[in-house]
Amino acid sequence: QAAAKAAAELEQKRQKEEDDLKMRSDFAEHWSGGGRNTGDQGRTGGPGAATPPTSNTSFQQPQPPQTTSSPPQHQNQHQPPQTGDPTSPISQKYAKAVTSEKGGDDEATISAIKRNVLIHWALMPPKYNMLRPIDHLLCAIHTVFPPAFGVIQHSYFTKWKQINPSDLVMSTAMGNSPDQSKLKKAVRKLRVFLHPDRLPRDFNGEHTFVCKMLWDVSNDAWEEFLKHKDDLDWIH
């Protein structure tokens, strides 16, 4: 019976990984041209392997971001534990993106938006070289929707229902550790919201870029969470 149970669990895990891989593949195909044309400017690249940060502390709702591209002062604010790997491919990708600049008015505008999203939402201060945990990103994503950072406001973003930290934890008795099944539902909710086929056709290039970037970052953070969990499973 124990062997049968173990085999069933392995099969369930394999099926879950296949489903997630198919979802990511289908979504990436839409963004790369399989769906309606959403433009190629400002792509941040696809997911990569990384050693993830943990998320075992309570989340404090961030203050609304400023429109400046200068790094905010966070010394007196509570931050997620900095247990990620700054040398991982994902960390290096986003750390490099913070300092990248492009010429031309349009490209400079996109670069400024990207830098603001990374500094105010995606990366952990003070070094800004590691992604925040996926549960922190999900709870704060509404703070970087337009009209943040000078992007023109659009009514579509008001349809997003804010996710609270209590929506993602196992239970108050179990502490503040995020529950994988609840995280997975929240990530799928975000993917549906940012899916190119669901976006309004009157989006401008900046709206489209923001949606693409938010999906890239959240997808990478979700991959790091899954990898970290798998590593812990092997240890135990």
List keywords for this structure.
236 residues, 6 helices
What is this entry, summarized?
The chain is built from six helices and no strands. The chain has 236 residues and is an all-alpha fold.
Structural class: mainly alpha
Compute the number of strand runs: 0
Largest sheet: none
Average pLDDT number:
75
- Our measurement of the CA-to-CA distance between the termini, rounded to an integer number of angstroms, reads 21 Å
Share of residues in strands: under 5%
Indicate the percent of residues in helices.
40-55%
Uncertain spans, ≥5 residues at pLDDT below 50? 34-62, 64-70, 73-83
- Per DSSP, the total helix count is 6
Radius of gyration: 18 Å
The outline comes out as: globular
Order of helices and strands: HHHHHH
What does this structure look like?
The chain has 236 residues and is an all-alpha fold. It is 49% helix and 0% strand. It contains six helices and no strands. The chain has helices at 2-34, 89-99, 105-122, 134-140, 180-194, 205-235. α2 packs across α3, α3 (105-122) packs parallel to α6 (205-235) and α5 runs antiparallel to α6 (205-235). The longest helix has 33 residues, at 2-34. The protein is globular. The two termini are 21 Å apart. The relative contact order is 0.17. Mean pLDDT is 75; it is low at 34-62, 64-70 and 73-83.
How are the elements arranged and paired?
Layout: H1 2-34, H2 89-99, H3 105-122, H4 134-140, H5 180-194, H6 205-235
